[in-house]
Design a protein that fits this description.
The protein is of the alpha+beta class and 200 residues long. It has helices at residues 3-6, 20-30, 51-57, 87-97, 115-121, 129-151, 156-176; strands spanning 13-14, 34-37, 47-50, 101-106, 108-114, 183-185, 197-199.
C-alpha cells in the first residue's frame, strides 16, 4: 500500500502568523492533534504544529497562547511524505525521525498521514512486506537461473536479473534487521565471484 491510499485527505491548515490560541481553538473545533502550517509563498516549506509543541513549549512554561505566534512553536520545515511512498517506508521514516505524523505533499498539500492511519488503514497485518519480498526474491532467483541456462552467465540479461536479486536481498536483510536468516544455495554455475549462498 502507498501513503496516498491511507492518508487523511481533509487537512486543517493555519497561518504561521496566527496565535497559538487560534491554533488550539481550531484543533478543538476539528478534533485534531496537529495542524499543517501554510507556506507563505510557493517555494516556502510547510510547517507542522502539534499538541505536543503547544504543551511542551507553551503550557509547560506558562506562556500566554494569545501572545505567542504559531511560527514560534511549530516545526518547519517538517518531515513530509511523498504520496507514492510505500507504507512500510513511511513507518520507517517515522521511526528514524521520531515523528508520528507528516503532511503528504507532491508539489501541493494532498493530505496527512499518521501512525494511526498506518495501524488501522494499512494491510500490514494481512500482507507484511517481508513475506512479499521473500516471494519476490524466490521468483527473481528462479528467473536469474532460467536466464543463465538460456543465455549464459555473461549475458546482459543475466546481469540485470542478478542485480534485481541482490537488491531484493538487501531490502529483505534490512527489514529483518538482525533476525535469523536462511540461506538459499545457489548452483555453482550461478555463483558470482565465488559466492556459494545468498542470504534471504
Amino acid at each position: 500500500m502507498k501513503a496516498q491510499e491511507i492518508m487523511t485527505q481533509e487537512v486543517a491548515t493555519i497561518r504561521g502568523s496566527a496565535t497559538v490560541a487560534d491554533a488550539v481553538k481550531l484543533m478543538k473545533l476539528k478534533k485534531l492533534r496537529s495542524l499543517v502550517v501554510d507556506r507563505r509563498y510557493e517555494e516556502d516549506a510547510y510547517g507542522l504544529v502539534t499538541e505536543e509543541d503547544i504543551t511542551n513549549k507553551v503550557v509547560a512554561y506558562g506562556k500566554d497562547p494569545k501572545q505567542l505566534k504559531v511560527y514560534e512553536v511549530m516545526t518547519k520545515p517538517c518531515v513530509v511524505v511523498n504520496p507514492d511512498l510505500a507504507v512500510e517506508y513511511v513507518a520507517r521514516l517515522f521511526a528514524l525521525t521520531g515523528v508520528d505524523r507528516a503532511p503528504v505533499i507532491q508539489g501541493d498539500l494532498l493530505g496527512i498521514i499518521s501512525v494511526t492511519d498506518i495501524l488501522f488503514k494499512s494491510d500490514f497485518l494481512t500482507n507484511p512486506r517481508l513475506a512479499i519480498l521473500e516471494r519476490a526474491l524466490e521468483e527473481a532467483n528462479a528467473a536469474a537461473r532460467a536466464i543463465a541456462q538460456e543465455q549464459g552467465e555473461n549475458s546482459e540479461a543475466f546481469t540485470v536479473a542478478w542485480e534485481k536479486v541482490q537488491e531484493l536481498e538487501a531490502e529483505a536483510a534490512h527489514l529483518q534487521s538482525g533476525a535469523t536468516t536462511k540461506a538459499v544455495t545457489v548452483p555453482s554455475n550461478l555463483a558470482l565471484a565465488g559466492s556459494e549462498a545468498v542470504a534471504v
